[in-house]
Amino acid sequence: MPRWFSFTSFMAANVLIDTEVLFYVWQRDPPLHRHFHTYLGGIGMGIVAGVSVCVASRVLRRAAPGLPRRWPTECAASRTAALVAGILGGSSHVFLDSLVHREMQPFWPLAIDNHLVGLVGHGTVHQGCAALGILGAVFWLLLNATYPGAASSKG
Q1: Comparing C-alpha atoms, which of 59, 56, 46 is closest to residue 9?
Q2: Buried-most residue among 9, 47, 59, 149 (CB within 10 A)?
């Protein structure tokens, strides 16, 4: 459904945000969740992801015009979908991580405390994400069965 939502941008935002954690793990320099793990940073990384997916999509289409239509070229349909999905990916990542990581400051620079940590258990967050992933996969399969080709990335 690339016209309304770019799954590629959503996932890219999540990966970009966690590059911060990988960097600080590699440096052995806690805390691991810093600037990208704030709403300001998450939204910023979401915008970077959305723009990057659009640029990569355009470059990919120009470099290889014969690619199958199902290849991810979301921005051919909607740049807004890529930006919105990136921002949703970034902000939801910060929200979910703030439920389980005490060191986070999700509302920085407005507040330096994380009042969301412990609101629900670590296992509950993981189970909820898994359940939503399964629900999304079922929705995608039903959509594709009902409207063949509707769930693919058409440019």
Answers
A1: 46
A2: 9
Q: Give 13-66 pLDDT, tens digit per residue.
A: 999 999 999 999 999 999 999 999 999 999 999 999 999 988 888 887 777 777
CA distances from 114 to 100, 107, 108, 110 (A): 10, 8, 9, 11
**Average pLDDT of the residues in 113-125:** 91
Read off the DSSP letter of residue 42: H
What is the number of structural domains in the chain?
1
Asked whether residue 61 is domain-assigned, the answer is yes
Q: Tell which residue, 94, 69, 85, has the closest CA to residue 150.
A: 69
Report the predicted TM-score, pTM, of the whole model to 2 decimal places: 0.81
Q: Do you find a cis peptide bond into 2, omega within 30 degrees of 0?
A: no
